[in-house]
Amino acid sequence: MINVLKVDHIGIAVKNMAEAKKFYTEVLGLTVQGEEVVEQQKVKVCFIPCGDSEVELLESTTPDGPIGKFIEKNGEGIQHMALRVENIREALADLKDKGVRLIDESPRYGAGGASIAFIHPKATGGILLELSERK
Ligand code: ZN
Question: Structural domain of residue 127, as residue ranges?
Answer without folding.
Answer: 4-133
